[in-house]
Amino acid sequence: MGVLMVIVGVFVMVLCMCTAVLRWNEMRYRKKGLPPGTMGWPVFGETTEFLKQGPNFMKNQRARYGSFFKSHILGCPTVVSMDPELNRYILMNEAKGLVPGYPQSMLDILGKCNIAAVHGSTHKQMRGALLALISPTMIRQQLFPKIDEFMRAFLSNWDNQVINIQDKTKEMAFLSSLKQIASAESSSVAQQFMPEFFKLVLGTLSLPIDLPGTNYRRGFQARQNILKILGQLIEKRRDSEESHKDMLGHLMRNDDSNRHKLSDDEIIDQIITILYSGYETVSTTSMMAVKYLHDHPTVLEELRKEHMGIRERKRADEPIEWNDLKSMRFTRAVIFETSRLATIVNGVLRKTTQEMELNGYVIPKGWRIYVYTREINYDPFLYPDPLAFNPWRWMDKGLESQNYFLIFGGGTRQCPGKELGIAEISTFLHYFVTRYRWEEVGAEKLMKFPRVEAPNGLHIRVSSY
Fold this sequence. Notes:
The chain crosses the membrane at residues 6-24. The protein is built from 16 helices and ten strands.
């Protein structure tokens, strides 16, 4: 009995201490003018609940506090905005006291020169350099032929195999981007580079706790290894003085045609940014397109009809061309609908550079604003029958130009690689649906937050079409 009383006493004491700590933390952020909301624990805030519950956490907080509330997630006090009109204003007004506000873990691992971390004139310089790499002319003349060549080879031997399409699309997205960046050396560095890159990706969405075994530590160490690989590659190219028609060659060019000259550190961070931003969206959208096409045979039939029409005009081994890509209207609709329904991007983060007023509340300097766009994708007023996979809704071009179309971001930070990503996914789908049919093996679980992924993989049995 005495032992039981001690245990109960310890439990009550711990409970009281936890309650006191929570109340103290709430009092710290009870400043007049702040939006309503809860802040959770010191340091950790509500990050655990946010990552575990995801959309349900957001819905519950919205039900309690409205569409504009405070929290503490990913290591920083944050205001969450779920109001479509206010979100658009925030995205369109970066110069008025708002800059990118990505988590510290992401900034540390992607580098201080990555395009998401910089603003003002530096952002303009970095964005200009990036846009020069992925302009329509660059895609048409240099990048798209590399994409087609890579996809034809990558999808050449899948017949009569059971494959994990999640692993395959991850590998595809990384290797395709690497070929565009450093075409001559991509094969020789891929084996060393790829596992480090996958660790880097995992580290970007983690608490910045630098302890052995954490995703943050692994991601940061992976960055150091990648810096060595890319540094050696740049040094080797500089010594050879050979001309290369790829992204790295363009970034390293020193003649007058390169208006956006970057330092080696800026070049490396630019390469990491290109790999990172394209990898997540291209791999996940490709995997989920395969999933949705399997589950919706009428959509697959329409998509296959579009691509078979292209193949009928060509020899068996003839590549697709730019005009073929431009004719893939239904394919583009499938990509948009996949991105909308799977919600690969949940929102974007901004940070206040000064105390500012938003929506009638005062937001302190240094706070993050999470422009949460996920719910827009399921708004029945914008997308009738929003949970249905219906690519035909995108055949009306007007839908893509609407103010609420934020699948690829918005404002001055809209994804600059949007068209390049669409070209990669379209080419992947072209060779996949014209060569193969497939069926799922097992009923594997899909997670939609914080990343869209299949924890145990997504296995399919592939056979020739």
